[in-house]
Design goal:
The complex is a heterodimer. Chain A has strands at residues 3-7, 10-12, 18-25, 34-39, 45-51, 58-60, 68-73, 78-83, 92-99, 106-109, 113-117. Chain A is an all-beta fold. In chain A, strands 2, 4, 5, 6, 9, 10 and 11 form a seven-stranded mixed β-sheet that branches. A four-stranded antiparallel β-sheet of chain A has the order 1-3-8-7, with no helix packed on it. In chain A, β9 and β10 form a beta hairpin. The termini of chain A are far apart. Chain B is mostly beta strands. Chain B is built from no helices and nine strands. In chain B, strands 1, 3, 4, 7, 8 and 9 form a six-stranded mixed β-sheet that branches. A three-stranded antiparallel β-sheet of chain B has the order 2-6-5, with no helix packed on it. In chain B, a hairpin with a 2-residue loop joins β5 and β6. Chain B starts with 7 loop residues before the first strand and ends with a strand. Classes of the chains: A mainly beta, B mainly beta.
Amino acid sequence: QVQLVESGGGLVRPGGSLRLSCAASGFTFSDHFMSWIRQAPGRGLEWLSYISLTGTQTYYADSVKGRLTISRDNTKNLMYLQIDSLRDEDTAIYYCARRVIKNHAFDVWGQGTVVTVSS
Amino acid sequence: YVLTQPPSVSVAPGQTARITCGGNNIGRKSVHWYQQKPGQAPMVVVYDDRDRPSGIPESFSGSNSGNTATLTISRVEAGDEADYYCQVWDGDSDHMVFGGGTKLTVL
């Protein structure tokens, strides 16, 4: 079945780095733009970044630009999010999501991976 | 681009819930709506203003005009209690934007 599975979350010290992964299955990964979205505890959804079909185009939210790097490997059906200079406010559930081909809705979401930034 | 949602909406079972999403000329954009229940990932319930994905009940509908998009849930059931988010693509900034979310409480 169509599925996205995130991994790579954990407890990190402020100032540290983390690389999250999103494994896709059940669909043609290279046919879809992909995104990362996060949700801080008790807060709403925050779009972070998205990546084009081949990875040549990437976009970032202003709040995280410069600290995040999104990438993908279509040969492995994987997407990544590198987060540098982690701050307390980066503590959140990080979701990867598939963008619908014909519009900008997200029709498939992973279950999320938890990132906790704390000293 | 900013999307504004009411923090909460309450409705009795069987009644109609309307959740608004305000944005400058949002009627010119395509609006998507997500439902998120506690401990779960969001799920799209309406896309492109008014279309429903397969498996979403007909009780969910959407509209969009002027500066306000609306998600309407008819014949509300206890199982509809959740957080709802609107989302658009802002072509001017190449950013996806989510509204702040609305908690729907079924009384």
